[in-house]
């Protein structure tokens, strides 16, 4: 009997190996397999950040595009790339599976970075250099050159979208969450991986940007291509060791089914009792019917056709005309978080300024430290460092003070006796070690164990809504400081000859705006992850996580739209965002963003109060 039980424990119940046989724990999965998978994410993050943060200087300095146009190109590309991760997730969950999605899109990413490297070295694919004596007569890139550039950039973006949606999820598949030992291993592994990802990002905005600016673009882009190609080789080499799980199906279909079923039965009168409503979930997983958005309840009405189908020998209702009450309520839960979703978009518009106009500002200023010239894009190191420092201070200073004030000591208690925190594994974070079954399971979108860290912190610290609100408040100050620093830069520019370059003002006066924006992201990012994960129904966490990704996407789109609107309203005579920032009023543009952010914060507070009221009324 013990031998039979031991034999059963050798296999993962919900995974298979590359041949389709039950996955053997001794030969598949574990740390090595997860590391092979997450190498793709590590080098994707490094290469994408190294290229994205310094892209405006390439468009401005090499392709000779106006500053506002360069900013819009980068913002639009980033927005579309993050939006593509949603479609990539649907593709992975419904058709390809995570392995093939990663394999295909990582190669697409390699193609994109390789094409960028080729573009940067072939003279016919870029305009000639400007004449130093005639800086105003630079030849702008023609349609062919821009066309090839767009193909390369968006090929890379497609690859990025496909990778981001699947890598973390496939990594978690390599650990059996029913096995205590493997759950603990998964917690330690992903925490350390997140730390190295952060270090990789810092390397991207320092070392790799320096290579681009001081050595050659082709070497910078070429090194990114080589790293991505290496990650693909490492990933494919582990094919026989991986554990594979079937396509879980996209929760997007559930939302569509509920909406379609409700529309099809829109003329049927809805009674106040629940007897006419369909429910097929067990008592433990049922969600009670709520009073708001009652039009969707019609999707659960049993009519004559539905009754005939459910009374058959093999009852199988058509999900496009009949949904359970629980499924309807899950969609309602998603609807309730939409106002919070909408009012957090504006932060990512602020974020977009850090990799576009703020970098262009730095490019016009003195960036010398002794004899060393700091690349303009490398000022984002202060942004990233501020994120890590903010989370570290919050974890090591604010949380202990908060618990001391509350009269509690020691380690954070587990969530429902399920999550425990190990406080000695990271320089910046209280790292999480999963000792028992987590209450919030890893979702189809690949939510990593870092979410459990965020969840655990809210027990004795700020709630997710408070974190997001604080981050939105800090972002207003970031744009306000940016406007003041730009006004100071413009004052120097107007009093200096146009032939003087760079301007005799230190680029490090921009550090406060980077630091404030980074601190804001530390709160908004973790708050969003916490909120969208914990406030969504268990079966729809993929959609919830995709909402988080689309806030980033829409934030970049809003940035592009604001640039276009401001350029049109300010006119050609008093253009706030002309080709040369020294002749514009970027300070006023930053001021407009700060004003919009302030209005948005007010709306966010109202939405947060509405959400808390609805949650108190509908959730037990």
Automatic annotation (TrEMBL):
InterPro entries assigned: MFS_trans_sf, POT_fam, PTR2_symporter_CS
Q: Transmembrane residues, as ranges?
A: 73-92, 99-122, 149-172, 193-212, 218-236, 337-359, 379-399, 468-485, 505-526, 547-568, 588-607
Q: How does it sit in the membrane?
A: Multi-pass membrane protein
**Can you tell which superkingdom this protein's organism belongs to?**
Eukaryota
The yes or no answer to whether the keyword Transmembrane is present is: yes
Alphabetically sorted, this entry's keywords are: Membrane, Transmembrane, Transmembrane helix
Pfam annotation, one family? PTR2
The entry's localization annotation reads:
Membrane
Tell me, in one coarse class, where this protein mainly resides: membrane
Which family would the database say this protein is a member of? Belongs to the major facilitator superfamily. Proton-dependent oligopeptide transporter (POT/PTR) (TC 2.A.17) family. Belongs to the major facilitator superfamily. Phosphate:H(+) symporter (TC 2.A.1.9) family.
Q: Which PANTHER family match?
A: OLIGOPEPTIDE TRANSPORTER-RELATED
Query: Would you tell me the protein name for this molecule?
Result: Uncharacterized protein
The organism is Penstemon davidsonii
């Amino acid at each position: 009997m013990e031998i039979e039980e031991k034999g059963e424990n050798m296999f993962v119940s919900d995974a298979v190996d590359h041949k389709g046989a039950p996955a053997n724990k001794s030969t598949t999965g574990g740390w090595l397999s997860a590391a092979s998978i997450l190498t793709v994410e590590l080098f994707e993050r490094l290469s994408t950040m190294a290229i994205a943060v310094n892209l405006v200087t390439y468009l401005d300095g090499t392709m000779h595009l106006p500053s506002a146009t360069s900013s819009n190109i980068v913002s639009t590309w980033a927005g579309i790339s993050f939006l593509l991760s949603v479609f990539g997730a649907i593709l992975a969950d419904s058709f390809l599976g995570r392995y093939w999605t990663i394999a295909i899109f990582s190669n697409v990413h390699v193609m994109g970075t390789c094409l960028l490297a080729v573009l940067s070295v072939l003279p016919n694919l870029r305009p000639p250099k400007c004449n130093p004596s005639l800086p105003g007569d630079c030849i702008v890139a023609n349609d062919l050159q821009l066309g090839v550039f767009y193909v390369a950039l968006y090929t890379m973006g497609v690859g990025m979208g496909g990778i981001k949606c699947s890598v973390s999820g496939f990594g978690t598949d390599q650990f059996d969450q029913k096995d205590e030992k493997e759950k603990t291993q998964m917690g330690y592994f992903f925490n350390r991986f997140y730390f190295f990802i952060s270090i990789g990002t810092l390397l991207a905005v320092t070392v790799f940007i320096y290579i681009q600016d001081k050595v050659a673009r082709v070497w910078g882009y070429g090194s990114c291509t080589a790293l991505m190609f290496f990650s693909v080789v490492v990933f494919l080499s582990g094919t026989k060791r991986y554990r594979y799980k079937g396509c879980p199906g996209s929760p997007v279909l559930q939302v569509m089914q509920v909406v379609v079923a409700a529309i099809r039965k829109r003329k049927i009168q809805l009674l106040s009792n629940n007897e006419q409503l369909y429910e097929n979930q067990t008592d433990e997983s049922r969600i009670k019917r709520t009073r708001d958005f009652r039009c969707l309840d019609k999707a659960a009405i049993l009519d004559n056709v539905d009754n005939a189908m459910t009374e058959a020998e093999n009852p199988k209702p058509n999900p496009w005309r009949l949904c359970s009450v629980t499924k309807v309520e899950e969609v309602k839960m998603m609807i309730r978080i939409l106002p919070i979703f909408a009012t957090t978009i504006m932060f990512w518009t602020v974020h977009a300024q850090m990799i576009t106009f703020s970098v262009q500002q730095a490019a016009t200023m003195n960036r010398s430290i002794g004899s060393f010239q700091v690349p303009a894009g490398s000022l984002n190191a202060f942004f990233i460092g501020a994120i890590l420092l903010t989370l570290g201070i919050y974890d090591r200073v604010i949380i202990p003070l908060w618990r001391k004030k509350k009269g509690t000591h020691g380690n954070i208690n587990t969530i429902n006796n399920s999550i425990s925190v190990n406080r000695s594994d990271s320089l910046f974070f209280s790292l999480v070690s999963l000792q028992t079954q987590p209450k919030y399971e890893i979702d189809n979108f690949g939510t990593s164990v870092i979410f459990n860290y965020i969840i655990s912190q809210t027990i004795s610290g700020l709630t997710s809504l408070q974190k997001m609100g604080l981050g939105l408040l800090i972002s207003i100050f970031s744009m306000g400081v940016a406007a003041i620093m730009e006004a100071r830069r413009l004052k120097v520019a107007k009093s200096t000859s146009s032939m003087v370059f760079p301007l005799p003002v230190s680029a490090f006066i921009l550090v406060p705006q980077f630091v404030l924006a980074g601190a804001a992201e530390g709160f908004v990012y973790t708050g969003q992850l916490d909120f969208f994960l914990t406030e969504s129904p268990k079966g729809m966490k993929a959609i919830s996580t995709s909402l988080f990704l689309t806030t980033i996407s829409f934030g970049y789109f809003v940035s592009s739209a604001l640039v276009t609107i401001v350029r049109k309203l300010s006119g050609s005579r008093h253009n706030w965002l002309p080709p040369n920032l020294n002749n514009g009023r970027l300070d006023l543009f930053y001021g407009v963003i700060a004003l919009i952010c302030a209005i948005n914060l007010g709306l966010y507070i109202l939405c947060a109060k509405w959400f808390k009221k609805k949650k108190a009324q509908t959730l037990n």
